[in-house]
Fold these 2 entries.
Entry 1:
Amino acid sequence: MRERVTGRFALAIFLAALALVALAPTDALAHDVTTGDRGYIQTILGVHLIPFAYLGAKHMVTGYDHLLFLLGVIFFLYRLRDIGLYVTLFAVGHSTTLLIGVIMGVGVNSHLVDAIIGLSVVYKALDNLGVYTRWFGFQPNTKAATLIFGLFHGLGLATKIIDFEMASDGMIPNLVAFNVGVEIGQLLALSAILVVMTHWRQTRRFLQQAVVANVAVAAAGIALIAIQLAGYFGEST
């Protein structure tokens, strides 16, 4: 009975989180920054490491797309060593395009890059469901995919920050602090996820419920793609 309750509780958390994604404002679905934080970034001058580290942590903890993708990545990873490897690959990709993108002013249309980020969520959910080997007879390189999609996640945020016209005074130290904050937020979010996952995996119905959960994650990713493409074509008209 306890296992059944634990499994249902974990699945309920997944579905509730996905419902929040569906009900959230469009701008909150991806790499958005609140009005107050945007004003701070636009007006600040000099080096402010702690505030930018806080903003980085806040971005990760509240970033639905980040969390959905990382959730998919660690869903069937049981060893901390493997979790650390994949999370590091994602962090390297994310940090690289964020720093290079902002410093060199390399940005793309935010709707298009966020649609690709939604695609990363769909990709990982389908991977967890075994779709590629079952339907197409091959297994994509999961490490390479995690790194590549990490690059897109960082590019998405870089595009937002470029739009804010961040001051050059203290830019590099502040961006590094922001990245450190992202890693802190990532660890906090993953710790909470792993607590739930650890108990859930011990239940007998985990594999059955995992199918439902990953189908729901894929559906959420498809919704993210549709919303971002609608925004892109809406701008074009």
Entry 2:
Amino acid sequence: MNLESFSTKDIGNLGEKVAADYLKKHGFRIIDRNVARKTGELDIIARKGDTLHFIEVKALKRREFPDLERTNDDYDPSDNLHPYKIQKVARTAEWYVAEKDWEGDWQVDGVLVWLRERDGMAKVTYLPQIV
């Protein structure tokens, strides 16, 4: 699928779907998606083993996949995982844990998704415990 005409919102939605599929393939069970509260939004809530994972997804459309081995690539979706955003996710996760009476372990993770414009192919990187 060609992503040339996709809006930023479309790219974000597709990135979240790709991230959820990736997580499922790696043993996570998706509990909820796009949970919004006044403190912020949780893109994906998943469980793996006895741990609840609050996952912030950052997606980016590129003409070609970046060379992740090079240090001079011009942009990385992790640039949007700045401390303020991570703090908002953690604060919202705390609310969720309290509301659901979750007594187990939990953590905040990140998933970076690069989407290739010409064919919609995805490259995914999982970042555990970004807090």
